[in-house]
Amino acid sequence: MALRYRAIGGRFDADERAALCTLADEAAAVWRLPDNGIWEMRTPPRHFVYSKVLCWVAADRGAKLALLRGDAEQAAGWRKAADEMHADICANGTDDRGVFCQHYGTTALDASALLIPLLGFLPPDHPRVRSTVLAIADELTEDGLVLRYKVDSTDTGFEGKEGTFTICSFWLVTALAMIGEQERARALCKKLLAFAGPLHLYAEEIDAATGEHLGNFPQAFTHLALIDAVGRLIEAERAAVPQL
Asked: SS3 of 35, please?
C-alpha cells in the first residue's frame, strides 16, 4: 500500500519513512526464522511459506521506495535481502509438482498461497503460480469453497472440523481471474454472492453443505477480499474482450 500511495503522488513525513524503514529492516533481519504463520498455529514454529513471502514483500517494496527517493545504497541492501528470500522460498517452498505448500518440508496445501500472484512474488502466468492455484481449487475445497488448510494434515493445536474460510474463497476468485480462468472465477464468484446474508454481509466461514455462516460476523476481511475479487474479475474480463 505504501508503494501504491507513493505511485499516485503521496509523500511520507520523517516519522512515516522511519516506520517503513523499520519494517523493511526487520523483515530482512528475521525472515530466516520460523514462526507460527498467518493462521497463528498453536504448535512449534515452522518455516511458513506465506510468512517468508510477506518478508519478501517488505524488502521488495522497501527497495522500490528507496529508489524513488534516490537512496541507491539503501535500495541495494533491501534488494539483496529480497533476492535471497525469493531464491530460498522458490527452492524450499514447493512440492515435487511445483506447487507452493504450507511450510518447508511438507506437501500440505495452504490457501494463503493464493496471494502469491496478487503480491507480485511471481507473475500470474508463471507455471508454479498456475499449478498452485489449480491445486488449491481442486484439492483444498469443499463443494468449490476454500478451506484454509486440511485439518487432518495440519497440526493446529485444535481438534474438530471447521467451515470453509470465506476470505480464502474470494482469494481463489482473484487468483483464477489472474491466471486466465475467467469462467471458473465467475462461477465461484456468483456462488459466493449467493451465500450473502439479508444485509449482503458475510461471516468468517461458510458451511459448504448447508450455507450456514460460521464464526465472526460480520467479518471485515471477507468483504475486502470480495471487493478486490469482483474488481479483478471485471478487469480480467474486460482485458479478454477483443479491441476494435
From this structure: strand
